[in-house]
Amino acid sequence: MLRIVWVALLACAAAVAVTTAVLRSPWWWAAAGPLLAVLLLAGRDLLQRRHSVLRNYPVLGHLRFLLEGVRPELQQYFVERNFDGRPFDRDTRSIVYERAKGTEAEEPFGTELDLYATGGEFLVPSMAPCPVPETPPRVRIGGPHCTQPYDMALLNVSAMSFGSLSANAVLALNTGAALGGFAHDTGEGGLSEYHLRPGGDLVWEIGTGYFGCRTEDGGFDEGRFAEKAANPQVKCVSLKLSQGAKPGVGGVLPGAKVNAEIARVRGVPQGETVTSPPYHRVFSTPRELVRFVGRMRELSGGKPTGFKLCVGSRRQFLAVCKAMLEEDLTPDFIIVDGAEGGTGAAPLEFADHVGLPLTDGLMIVQDALVGTGLRDRIKIGASGKVATGSDLVKRLALGADYTNAARAMMFAVGCIQAQRCHTNTCPVGVATQDRHRARALDVGDKSQRVRRFQEATVKSALQIMAAMGVQDPAQLRPHMLRLRVDTHTISSYADIRPWLAPRELVEGAPPSWAEDWQAADPDTFTV
Fold first, then answer.
1. Region for 187 from its dihedrals, namely left if φ exceeds 0, alpha if ψ lies in -120 to 50, beta otherwise
2. What pLDDT score was predicted for residue 289?
3. N or C of the chain: less Cβ packing under 10 Å?
């Protein structure tokens, strides 16, 4: 509304200046000319559909592009900072934007990365590269108890709820998923019409608030769950145990965002702040968790069902593995969310100091499933700062079968990291329930950007794998990824730590795992 008022005032000023120039003095053209030029620019900004920031902030929004264009002096600060202030790798955000727009180009003069920095990772090229596959491979999700398996893409939309994201943002993400043939995780905010209308494949995430399948007192409603899970667009069901940005903390949706529509979708009172508990009410032990996942699969009609977590205690995860073995009941997939994940608003101490980074959590889950002989029944998804083809390949090399991206997908729909997600004043209409702001996000344009970004990133990953002499992601191994340990030492991930052999934990745990394996109890989460 303010932008319309501002443009109207500008039009009045231009009209007065032109009238005065015509009727009184030609010197007024010095003012009328610039005012008319600015008015034309404002009109163009309001009518164009490519840039949400210009639709919400005509004329003034061009300052953002001016700053972004000052490279490289200011780009490090103004462009490459993520939501919690920690920088991405060089040009990560620029790569996402360029791929989303279809304007990606190669850069001259080589790398600007510090190749000798401790902690740097390097993928190993082959002296005998292979052809790039023409069709991107997909991953079959579905264990022995699944009757409706799903073929997952290598890169998908990670969990972001309607409520935290605007209706137009959700529409753009799901439309992009439908166009590109990949999956869209709903986040824990429930199934809305904006997830369903475009027809894209969905992973329905159920969190501790059980939104969309919730009893009046906040419990889990089996009837509502079964009814909604039967929707053919729901391809998988994911139980959220914890989130990388804030493991051990429930989600919060400010009351200002809880309008009538969101209240209806989530099954909560309108206008009241919604807080998800940090814990689940329907289970309290690893054994009960495994049984509940199995029950969700039954209620969904045999669709792939799994859980998501940010890994903390290795002993607790081993307790879940023991429960799986004793119950002979396994999830179809496990999504490992890294602590570096950053789309969820979180207390800074949790964002910076709680939970394992994706690499460490991924290796623990991979090893535990291999060591217990369960790996062939369970697929592993990886999420947490996955934005480029190299990110994707690194996750696959360390054990993941597929990946999810949240922050990069937000970039693709136009996020400029204004860090106003919690205030309902997102300047580009991505993370807001203000309809006037959200309308600036053009679904048709942004859905194509989502599709292009996913397609180009998977293509990049396949090109990297081909350069490594690999055509099938299942051929990637830890020794193909190297880590600079210090200035003079580079080691492969195969050598940095001992990896477990199939069923090694069951048949005789090695000393480095023996204490945790012995102490893991399928009937308690006590560390």
1. left
2. 98
3. N
